[in-house]
Structure prediction request, 607 residues.
Amino acid sequence: MSKRSIRASQTIVPFGVGAVYDIFRESFVGCDTSWWGSRGRRIRSEALNRILNVRGLRAAPSESDNDRGVPYMRFPQWLFCQRCRRLQRWSPRDEELGEPASCKACGGNPRLVPMRFVVACSKGHLADVPWVIWAHSQPKIPGQPRCEKPALRFLSRKSAGSGLASLEVRCIKCENGRSLSGITVRGSLQQLHLHCLGSQPWERSDGQRSCPEEPRVLQRGASNLYFADVESALDIPAGDDLDEFGEVRLKIESSSYYETLSKTSATDTEVYEYLLNAFSREIDVPTATIKALLAQKAETRPVLTKEGLANAEWAALIAEQKEVRFDSPFITKQTSLLRGDQPSSKLEVNLVEAIKQVVLVTRLKEVRALRSFSRIDPTNRGLRPDLTVDDPAVQRKIDWVPAAEIYGEGIFIRISEDAITSWEQKAAVTKRTELLQRRLLQSSLGASILKQRTGLVEISARFVLLHTFAHLLIRELCFDSGYSAAALRERIYCGTSDDGTKQAGVLIYTAAGDSEGTLGGLVRQGQPPRLIGAIQRAIEAGVWCSADPVCRESHGQGYDKTNLAACHACALLPETSCICNNMLLDRSLFVEAAVQSSAFFPDPATL
Prediction:
């Protein structure tokens, strides 16, 4: 059999704790972080520690960690044989290391296939469909008792069409069975007096727990089966003031002595001093530094907000780096749109006036951490990776969360504040922005996603402009940079800095979870005069969409009509690239088409 493997970045999203992972016709679910034990390399990001209010971050354990990798459990546990159609409930005791589940009743041991339906509730619980109960829920003889030792088959009804009505789970002992018609309808399990057990597939249910939420049957690949709440931060020099120990902290916290010493009372002087000195000798760090770090751990640190994180990143991006260490995770270089030449067209003159700063981020490291996850309804409060409720009032069982480091490169573009301020004051701009804001408030899911991803409750005209600009530019850069659109991401800066100045900039960077993110193609496209050419093409692409005039004149499209002049043909990106799920886009605020007073950039054809 092919080796089961997963990228480190995928253990955060889309296949993190609680997510179903299909591989080689098998299906597994990620176990909670209590299964990791002490395994997993520690990751340094003090900014994320403060945003998530945790003590640390850990990468997923690899095979080198005690010869075991990331803990996943086979799920669904109900499997069927494609040859004899027998339904079997698989147990962890049946597992053979590295081998697929196979049917023991058939000759040749054919592989078992997982059932396509599972049970979930909006509080995040997950379970198998109770197929035995389902098969006996409509007995041929009313009141007939259920089989003591049922033998189920997953059959196909040839005369019942091609829908769920054509599939049936039947007990060959009593000949009772039921088709799958209506199984995904809300209330289908409640009609059978079945309730949520309040457990996860890898947990042993003692039969005593219960959950008040309605259990619902979903396909195991359904998009609403798993919503990951992921927080990310750039590892930047501006964040060093958040962590005075820097790399020394990581060295201290990675030692086995650290947890033991942190739990030892300083009043027990003899034991404490013995452990402290042994710790100091092992890692070659002064005892005073270790004591200071332990004291910091005991203190309550202020939680960092998304706005504070964005301000730190903004300050690092606009500042000129004078001294750069060769091992720095964040290296930038100031550049310009033109190669010292005068603008050759009116559009170039306009761009030079509108764009104040271009920064090439030749080395970049993003840290992504899994805060929590939820099912069915993403607006519900999710479960933490250790399965405690995502509520600051609830004591956390484990004071760290899973994370991954993604290395790459990027281009930062800063818009002139004078140009964007005068544009924002136009009545037509305000009117279109207010329309999008009303649509956002009417969409509970949309507002929740925006707040979760950006911390914003209300949007501004500059947010819509920068967001649309980033989308159109990404679509152009992917043609020449060597990256696909799904491998590029955006970060938008449109708040207010700590010194009171307003922000207006976008960072387009690689989001690949392996060495693909450092190919150098994106930074090359940011060098003059390539970038100004890409921006010109993005502006020209924004003027006309193949769906125009329908797209341009639309009064609302996309999810809950939270886009105006933006569709799949012109402005939408893969959802992994967008900061807010392809919402709040409008080409009419970005570039003119014919005569339109709401656009920031003019139509190149009119210049």
